[in-house]
Write a structure and sequence with these properties.
By secondary structure, the protein is mainly α. It has helices spanning about 15-25, 30-45. Helix 1 crosses helix 2. It is elongated and about 60 Å long.
Amino acid sequence: MPTPAKKAFALRLDPALYAAVERMAAAELRSANAEIEILLREALARRGVTVKPPEPVKRGRPARKDSI
């Protein structure tokens, strides 16, 4: 099942900053990448920038097509 495309890019962070992000992510049971994405969305929202929420990933079996 294909997932929505996401933009990949290199991000250089101070090791102490990344460690703090990892701790926050672990406390929320998320990956560091997901935690960074959430932090960026929150920061943009505080500045009044609206970003549409991500579309949820479809899970489960595809709908059955009845053959005629």
